[in-house]
Amino acid sequence: GAIKGLQRQVPYELIPSFDVDGKHYRPTVYIADFTYTDAKTGEEIVEDCKGYRTDIYRLKSKIFAHKYGVVILET
């Protein structure tokens, strides 16, 4: 009863696909391990289970925080 709406492997688009000088770039996506709503506060939580914070993860988490205004909870 502490959480509601648990979802796994939720994709978030960080940078949409685009074309430059005839070259196509695929979208950049962050996939959250879990998302859920805190039953007490109603706050949406984005959670990632980390054994090691890679450079790619650090960059994606920074872009995610900028775009969505949410800090990823790391466990």
Could you characterize what this model shows?
By secondary structure, the chain is α+β, with helices and mostly antiparallel strands. The protein is built from 1 helix and 6 strands; from the N terminus they run βββββαβ. The strands form 2 sheets. The chain has a 4-stranded mixed sheet with strand order 1-4-5-6. Strands 2-3 form a two-stranded antiparallel ribbon. It is elongated, with a radius of gyration of 15 Å.
Ranges with pLDDT <50 over ≥5 residues?
A: none
Largest β-sheet summary: 4 strands, mixed
Side by side, the strands of the main sheet go 1-4-5-6
Shape: elongated
Beta-strand residue fraction: over 45%
Q: Give the helix level as a range of percent.
A: 10-25%
Terminal residue distance: 20 Å
Structural class call reads alpha+beta
What sequence of helices (H) and strands (E) makes up the elements?
EEEEEHE
**Average of pLDDT:** 97
Number of helices: 1
Radius of gyration, rounded? 15 Å
DSSP strand tally? 6
Features:
single chain, 75 residues, alpha+beta, 4-stranded mixed β-sheet, two-stranded antiparallel sheet, 6 strands, 19% helix
List the helices and strands and how they pair.
Elements: E1 3-15, E2 18-20, E3 23-25, E4 28-38, E5 44-48, H1 55-68, E6 73-74
A few lines on this structure:
By secondary structure, this protein is of the alpha+beta class.
